[in-house]
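User: Here's a structure from my thesis project, written as structure tokens. My advisor, Dr. K., wants to see whether a designed sequence matches the one we expressed. Can you design one independently, without my sequence as a hint?
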């Protein structure tokens, strides 16, 4: 989950998927960003929520690791938190691919950045969150059986 958090933070705050200046002050938006401002705001919200959820997962992992008793009961929320993180990361990926696909040519012509880099970081974080969810599910299953 640590690597997932790092990838999500980089993709969120490097300013290549969406511009934080545009989100704060609409007069700084490009015409392309003005056209897609609703999906950009939704992506920013879900990515920030995903970061918060990833931090909760890491904290819960630490609590579970340090717990000396009742581990098989305290570990159950980890699966839920991991699933929520995966869902929160899935939303921006779907939003990006569906709402931006038609106008990507314009965006590439008018902005000198590597847009794909941040998107693929986000996809990597999504894959890692999915793996974390599978590992959490397996851990809960084995933990409840006493392994």
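Assistant: Designed independently from the structure alone:
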């Amino acid at each position: 989950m640590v690597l997932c958090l790092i990838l999500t933070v980089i993709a969120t705050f490097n300013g290549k998927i969406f511009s934080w200046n545009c989100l704060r002050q609409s007069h700084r938006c490009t015409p392309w960003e003005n056209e897609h401002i609703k999906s950009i705001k939704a992506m920013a919200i879900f990515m920030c929520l995903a970061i918060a959820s990833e931090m909760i997962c890491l904290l819960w992992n630490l609590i579970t690791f340090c717990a000396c008793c009742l581990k098989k009961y305290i570990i159950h929320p980890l699966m839920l938190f991991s699933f929520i993180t995966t869902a929160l990361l899935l939303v921006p990926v779907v939003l990006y691919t569906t709402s931006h696909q038609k106008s990507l040519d314009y965006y590439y012509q008018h902005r000198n950045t590597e847009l794909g880099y941040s998107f693929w970081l986000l996809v990597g974080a999504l894959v890692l969150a999915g793996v974390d969810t599978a590992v959490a599910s397996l851990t809960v299953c084995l933990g409840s059986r006493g392994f």
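When you compare it with your expressed construct, this may help: The helical segments are 2-13, 20-24, 31-35, 37-66, 71-74, 76-100, 104-110, 115-144.
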